[in-house]
Prior knowledge:
Chain A is an alpha/beta fold. Helices cover about 30% and strands about 20% of the residues of chain A. Chain A has a 6-stranded mixed beta sheet. In chain A, helix 1 (about 30-40) packs parallel to helix 8 and helix 19 packs antiparallel against helix 20 (about 630-640). Chain B is mainly beta and about 120 residues long. Chain B has helices spanning about 105-110, 110-115; strands at about 5-10, 20, 30-35, 40-45, 60, 65, 70-75, 90, 95, 100-105. In chain B, a hairpin with a 6-residue loop joins strand 6 and strand 7. Classes of the chains: A alpha/beta (about 850), B mainly beta (about 120). At the A-B interface, helix 18 and strand 40 of A face strand 1, strand 2, strand 5 and helix 1 of B.
Amino acid sequence: MNAPMTFDTGAPPPKGSRERLVVIGNGMAGCRAVEEILARDPNRFEITIFGAEPRVNYNRIMLSPVLAGDKSFDEIVINGADWYTDNGITLVSGDRVDHIDRAHKCVVARSGRVEPYDTLLIATGSDPFIIPIPGHDLDGVVTFRDLDDVDKMLAAAEKGGDAVVIGGGLLGLEAAHGLSLRGMKVTVVHLMPTLMERQLDEAAGYLLKTELERRGQTILTGANTKAIHGLDGKVVGIELEDGTRVKADIVVMAAGIRPSTGLAKAAGLECERGVMVDDHMVTSDPDVLAVGECVQHRGLCYGLVAPLWEMCRALADHVTDAPSGYLGSVTSTKLKVSGIDLFSAGDFSGGEGCEDIVLRDAARGVYKRVVLKDDKLVGAVLYGDTADGSWYFDLLKKGESVADLREGLIFGQAFASGGALADPNAAVANLSDEAEICGCNGVSKGTVVKSILAGACSLDAVRSTCKASASCGSCTGLVELLLSLTMGEDYGGAREVKTLCKCTSFGHDDVRRLIVEKQLKSIPQVMQELHWSTPDGCASCRPALNYYLLCALPGAYVDDQKSRFVNERMHANIQKDGTYSVVPRMWGGLTNPRELRAIADVVEKFNAPMVKVTGGQRLDIFGIRKEDLPAVWADLNAAGMVSGHAYGKSLRTVKTCVGSEWCRFGTQDSTGLGVKIEQMTWGSWMPHKFKIAVSGCPRNCAEATIKDFGVVCVDSGYELHVGGNGGIKVRATDFLCKVATEEEAMDVCAAFTQLYREEAHYLERTAPWIERVGLDHIKSRLLDDPDAIRRYAARFRYSQQFSQDDPWAKRASGERRDLHAHIATVRPLVVTPEMENA
Amino acid sequence: MHGDWLDIGPKTQIEPGTARTLPVEGGEEIAVFHTMRGEFFALVNACPHKQGPLSQGIVHGDVVTCPLHNWNISLRSGNALGADEGCVPTIPLRVDAGRIYLKRSAVLSPRAVLA
């Protein structure tokens, strides 16, 4: 610790003639408040400033550029020693105030120095939050708050090696960026699933994460640090909740800040999260003021610099007898990482009556979202193009109606303020001939217009003649505008595509094609690349995208459980009273005493009020509570039974008749084939539920001709039928083909199933699918090329490798217990935790 | 702040985009939601339509879709959205130092707060 130093110079008017102002805190807030007061009345106070750090006042928010090597300390000093001298201010730096004595109106510093005051200003700022995990006090664990921290980080970076930053907020990412530029291998560990979740929504967070990863940082989101490990008192690495270990030569804790209220609390001033102040920054003691990050004003604490300037103005007005009042701040954030443009302001969490306008431009890596409420702008998130950040922020602060700007608002100031340009037609008409319309194929407006004038009078014609909108399709709207502008009334109008849901302008087929073409790998990535208009989709598109990705990337895609309908998440069928029904698999409809006993035991043990034989030849156990599901499954598993997937958009059951083994009419072993087919197809996820049946003769007791795939055995082989449905609209199957052997029947079954998986729309059964595309389409895919059956069947069997895990076995062994257990039970006035930190 | 606020555990116990439940003896079960944006909300775990367990629905934005008949319920206000009409009581919630707190009086009688 440096010895206290004092700049005690200048020639103030004689002591006693002026009021004494003592400021605790030599940071940005304390000094700015003093500047504001001096600007109003330079002679009113005799001023003493205490600073805990042994240096003059500097710009704390510029520590990031110092760490990154863009600036030196001297460049970020706000007020040098001269300022204190010239204004007759006594600076006591490196000597922390330990105690406020309100009774005697004085403060006592660590050195023993006692300083009396008439007016006291608390500007103690905030403290970094240290997560109290094991190892947080090891050598090499630092925070990112002051110049000492930066010095420690720079010293570590000189040796190179690995750095871990705990916290993916503004401060953490700036620290990570600096350390990375200084040559360290950086891993960011962030508790929440989205980086900077307080400032960004999921979509912008995803773009930011992708960019940081491209720059070589490792970003772990949804990661909870369990411990910091050390050797001989020095940090060597961290361990996450899931057991992952990351090597570290330095660990930066940037998990947030807390208003520093210790002194104020000890002095008996009213505090909640921060020191409570009124609109004039006065605390519960009229002679004590507080300002900056340490205060709580109208329920809010601020951790940014802009509110601080506004607070200081109100404070200075108050102490110089011209009270104005501080009404709270609307804040905006910019990330200070070079090359990444990111801006956010206001409230973009949505809510009642809020309306989102989203613009995504995948080619330029741009995401813009503005939130409107009652025709006023209330929030904005910009990534990749922040040129209009200050314009949006201005509109937001003014709080005026933006109804007139609405149409063009998302395109920015130049567009929206251009008078007539607010009409998108006019905007497109005003584009120059060189303006790029299609980014994928580099087609300019002039080229598109030329091809329209040469006779391309529909979207498809434009696509085939000049390639515009022929790839990702995101410029389709622009091309259609050009068609209507160029052709006038001759244009037949936009084509009708039924969109996947209201979040997108793409249809199911386009989404499926683009997932494969653009090699998209996650739901947020699909939403960004395909210009989704909502931040995280809806209950219609999320399950559809999850399925499409699962189908396109067998084995590689990680199933997103939160995008699944409840039944597929719980592996049971929800009933009207919120309980579940459980259906164990009975292969081909066969069962035995052991299975029946186990089912009977489960029914009694869990008081299931009903058991019913299903239409798919199995038993359904009703009235099971979600908490009991894992135990029910454990018992059924013990008897050798697995999930029947009676709840899924998946293979349900293979219904059979008894066939040649018992039946006097049977022509083939329909039961045996049914069991083999069920063993091949169980566990597969599909666009919708999928039922199979095998009948042993044309009497068709297994009702194979109203199933999605039906086998009817005949003396000479197997007749294969597709597209039947016994539901709302009964549809008999279409005959697909006839084969001679069981193996061929199974290959065609696998191939047809895979074709359906790859081409149908989500939630489209085989019957409407076949009616939509035509039986000839199915036949041409499967039967025209003699090798097609083999190829489709091979793809099906490959993806089945990854889906034939019994989901019940995992749950019964305790996996995802959080889906089944309550958080706790409230017994009036008592809480009994059932699981902490699950 | 602990007097009228009931500590129901760390916020990490609810994965973003999901909800978990809190039965109340002699009262109504509560669903506590964690949105993808990182916000927390608590509602009575019963859809205003046919009392479906909202905790089991798909969460998108600040809306949950009821698993029984696909009503969309605002987590912020408890109101049914779109053409449907109805409202489920919400329970005041706050997060402090990584823990979730529910307003005790509302936990015990959520419908009194609604009225």
